[in-house]
Every structure is written in structure tokens, then in C-alpha cells.
Design goal:
about 750 residues, Aldehyde Oxidoreductase, domain 4, Aldehyde Oxidoreductase, domain 3, alpha+beta, 3 domains, five-stranded mixed sheet
Length: about 750
Amino acid sequence: MSRSPNGSWRSVGTRPVRPDGIDKVTGRAVFSADFNLPDALQGAVLRSPFAHARILRMDTARALALPGVKAIITASDLPEITEDQALINGQPPDFRDMSANILARTKVLYEGHALAAVAAVDAKTAEQALALIDVEYEVLPHVIDVQQAMAPDAPVLHDSLITQGITPAPSRPSNIASRHEQVHGDVEQGFAQADIILTEEFTTQPVHQGYIEPHACMARVASDGQTDIWCSSQGQFMVRAYCARLLDMPLSRIRVTPLEIGGGFGGKTTVYLEPLAVLLARRSGRPVKIQMSRADVFRATGPASGSYISMKIGALNDGTLVAAQGILCYQAGAFPGSPVRLGCMTAFAPYDIANVKMIGYDVVVNRPKSAAYRAPGAPMASFAAESLIDMLAQRLGMDPLELRIRNAARDGTRTAYGPRFKEIGYLQTLQAAQAHPHYSAPLGQHQGRGVASGFWFNMGGQSSAALTLNEDGTVMVTTANPDIGGSRASMALMAAEVLEIDVDRVRPEIADTSSIAYSDLTGGSRVTFAVGMAVTQAATELVASLQQRAATLWDIPVDQIDWREGCAVASIDGKQEILSLSSLAAQAGKTGGPIAAHVSINAQGAGPGFGTHICDVEVDPDTGRVTVLRYTAIQDVGTAVHPSYVEGQLQGGAVQGIGWALNEAYQYDDNGAQLNPGFLDYRVPVASDLPMIDTVLVEVPNPRHPFGVRGVGEVPIIPPLGAVANAVSRATGTRHVDLPMSPPVVLRAIQRAARRRR
């Protein structure tokens, strides 16, 4: 593969209409709630009204006697998972915890925790049955806040939870699941060298991923035990593996068909309903469909972790960073597993700092188990780090971009978490920000400008792709990853590039678990890189096969055949001969049969991603209301395979981060019940809240991918928290360290600052 003489690709970098676009905008696309089977029952889930309570008794007899009820299940119907069976090869997830999260066994640990599930002839009957299940509780003290949960006298969620990562191991249980320490250099020596040391504490609240489509699934179990699941998820192989493990079933007995997904952002990388639907279908002998309400989604699925962070940096008078230290405490929800380790790794990754020490605590609280949300763990850590960088720039009287350029990680910089960076474009994003007209635009009264940077590792992983040449010369590209951000289009573009054909002759599809080899889920910004690599290799194999078929037809050595413009080309007896893709397809029967290629790889060499954002705000001094006036997201994207969708990723991440910074938060009453389980009260940004988000695509190709691809989906949500907070801080003249910066919070800060000045 080579670029054209003008340096561009034939297909990669163009902007065709996405293959699934028309069906989605016309309402023809099939999402989980749209899928139905004849004779299917409706499922419903009984959920706890308490944040923390012991289950003394549960009686389902009255519910089961209700006409139209066909099956009821409780935790006793789930296989027991012992402690030594909880992990596979010592790696998360913990299936014992996952099982207890799907259906509570001895205690409920948050409002919304599932206790039982019912299948009935219709939704009304199923809901009536839930009301007839008798549950007797012993209500226990609960704890919502991460710092309170770490206190020695806090109510303990799990009597068997002993903090890991501490030597010697504690003898008493606590809510601190684990301690993680990451050390680079000698921080004590670094701070001793520093001319300036800044310390601050920060808090963020749990926020929801905000996907529009609630969780839903359908399950059918045949008489021989063969099980089919249709669902909305970020990975059908993940659903198959988790259900098999939780229900003690062979993988071969489960087929999972992915339907369209109405958003996920990390929130659909685990299971909630699927095992319940399978058990109900098995017990009733009929297909079972379960859907979550919006309130169920908020109360019972995983938000991003809330956090408390104490952070310190040291610098020389010229702005050189010499030391950084942080203590990160992340809410895991009811079961261990927050992304605090990733927060420790990413906080200062954009910078070349000789001495860094980060300590992370994974803490359980009486909230839903946390789940991934775009760059899990990184936005909160970046908010703290980028706020301190901005505070340092103000202390030094230095331009905040100049300070970042002085300390920017470059090729060869050793990261605080170990490896050295290779072929990264962070410096280029800073330079692009400096040169952007936004950065030099004038500001008015009560207005402020903030900048912040962010880093994400990006991922590779196990990926499969199959290319099939149809009889008419068109090509099917089959992969195994649900399309969240336009990956069908990216796969088609890369296949078309290798085959040197128009992209409208390539049709991408996403297969079920029985129709293609295993792939890791859609997440971690891995699909365009890793699955694209598999597609590229399969397309290359297909070209080689086509050249071999042409050699057979022409009866010449294959090394005499070139592939150009979608055709096999050879010089035979001084005359140029051409066989088109259509001709080769039509004659496949003469040359060995159907023509196809399949590749399965464990993709390595993901290029890390960096972004720098600029945000302008105006703050109303009388109400504290923050208006975002202008926003620019700049990112090293490697190669933009479909630039429109890359720009969309940057814009979407920026919008989600702005919501995280200004409005979004789970709110609870004194009993641990959520007060805002819906989009009416849980305030996500809407179009009228935002300016147009400008984007700048910096392309520093990743040399370990055939087209220079590096993932783009995670990075855009990392800088906004810091960029918005820095802008608000500069507009108000007082530092804002607690998110979200809602109008009452900002107004109180303004009033406190005014009192101090008086």
C-alpha cells in the first residue's frame, strides 16, 4: 500500500456517508427494544428501595400464583461462584461480585440493587407480580461519600473485604478494597529542589455515560439448551463469556447476536439483564424480553466513579516541573473495581517530570457498581493535574501553553508509569493551540479562557475480520465489533484502500458470535486501530489470492502479476492483460472456488493519544451561571480514516466533558435514594447550552499501523474538566476545585472570594 503522488490515500481520509446512516436516521435500524420474537414473555426486575439492608426473608409465592406469571428467579437460582472461581487467571472482572450485583444474595448494597426477576405474558402483569413479592429487610447504615467510606468508623459494606496492596495486610475489613502505588524517581528529592510547591484538594461526582438507549435484551433457550441472546452491548463475545461464566454454561451453547447500539461510552461493557433473561427463558420455556426504564438505568447501572484527589506539584522558577505527587480516592460503587489505577497512570502522562509518586485507593460505597466511561479514571485525575498546572502558570505569570510546551512529553520521554513514548504528537497539539485564532481572541468582562491537555494509552487486542468476494465482484467485510462511532465506515474505507476499489463496492457487516472468530469488545479506542489492522491484513490476503487466481487463468507465474485499481494486471507476450474484480469473481469456480480471506490477530503497537483543548466562558456574577462561549478541541489523531467521524468523536467528548464539569452529578437524599434518575433532573448539555465545537486534527501517523491509525475516542473527554475549570477560575478570580461547577457552587465561591477581599 502506498499513497498517491499527491500524498493522499484513495479512500482513507475521505468522507462517504456511513453505511448504516440511512437506516438510523429513517428509523429502520433495529435496536434491542425493537427486537421481538413470537410468544415472547415480558421480564421485569424487582429492585431494592434501600441503599444498604440485610435481606431477612423473600417470598415469591403470591407473585408466582398471579395469572399470567410464567417464571420467577432469585439469587438462589444463580450458580454459586466460590472465591477461587471469581477471577480467570487472576484478572478482573470478579465474577463473584458480578453475580451478586446481578441479583443480591444476602444484602442489598444500593438503591436499585436487583433482588428478583419475573417473566409474564405482558409488562403490566410482570409489574403486578413484582409488587406481590414479599421482602423483609433489616435496614443498615449506609455511606455514599468516598472520604466518609474510608473513615475507620464507617459502615462496612463487605465483612470479608480486606484491603489489598498493604503490607502487612490489615486484620479488619474496611471499605478500602485496594491501595495502588506508582513511583517514578524520588519525589522527596524533587520537592527539595523545587522553588515553588503548590498543593490542592479536588472532588468530582459520579456521572452517567448518558447513552440514549436503555439496556434491553431478548433470550431464547431451545429444548436442547442451545441459547440465543439478542442485545445492545459493546461486545457480543463479552456477553457470551460473562453469561457462560455466571450461569455455568459451555460457550458453545450460547450465541449472541449484536443489535444496533444507541450509545455506550463504556457503560455497556458488562451485563445486567442478559443472565436474568436466559434463566427466565430456561424456566418458562419461552423467549423472554427485558428492558430497563430510564430510572433503572440510573439507579442500577454503572456511572463513572466520583473522586477525592489531593495533589501536589513542584517547579523551578523557570517553570520546569521537578516533582508531582497525588493521592487519588475513587468510588467503586458497591463492589470493588474503580479505575483508580488508570487515574494514577494518566494524570501527569503529558509531561516530562523526573519524580512522580501516585497513590490510589479503590473504595466501595453504597452506590451502583461503577462502570467504564470514556478513558475510565483519566478525566478526574487530569482535572486535578491540569488545574495545578494552571495555578502554577498564574503563580509564575507564564502563558499556560508555554508552560506546557516547556514540560511537554516528547519522543523518548519516559512516562511516570514506565515505558518511553514513541512517535507522539503532544507537542504538535500545543503548537496548534498556540497558533489557533481562538487563543488570541479578546475576552470581555466576566470572561475567562482555560486550556488543558489529556492523554490516553489507546489499545489493540484480539480482533478478527473476514473478507468475502461476492459473485458480482463486490466485497463483504465482516467484523465482530458493535459500531458505536462509525467503525463500519472505517472498515470499509481501509478494505477499499487495499483492494483499490470504490468504497461503495464494499459492504461491512457485524457478525454474531457463531459467525466469526473472537474479538475483544468495542472500547479503549481500539476498533479502528486493531480491527482495522485485521481488515487490512485480510484485504491484503484477498489481493494475494486474487493474483493467484489470475495467474491460474493466464497460466503464468504469480510474481508477474500486479494489482492496480481493483484489477489483476500482467504483461503477456508484450500485451497488457487485465482481469477485473468482477471477472475474477465470475470465474472463481474455474480457479478453486469461492474467494475469501480471514484474519485473527492480537494487535500490538497502539499509538498513545494526546489532546489539548481551549475553552472560553462567561460567568454571571449575580447567579453563578456559566456560559461556554467558544470551545476548540485539538488532538493528534494519527490518521483520520473518516475525518467527519473523527471530528464527531472530538466534539462528542468535549460536550460530555463540559457536562461533567458544569452540571452532571448523581444526587442522593439522606436515605441514599437517588433524587435525579432521569434526564429531566440529571442535567446533560443540550444544543442550546453549547457553542459549535471547533476541531483541529493533528496527524502524526502511528508507524505501527498500515495507515498510521491511532485511537481517538477516549482522549476528547479528558481535557474538558480542566479546561472549563481553568476558564471559570480565571473568569471569577477564584480557584474552583469541586465539580460540577453548577450556578449555586460558583456563586458561593464568588461570594467567599468577595468576603475575603473585603
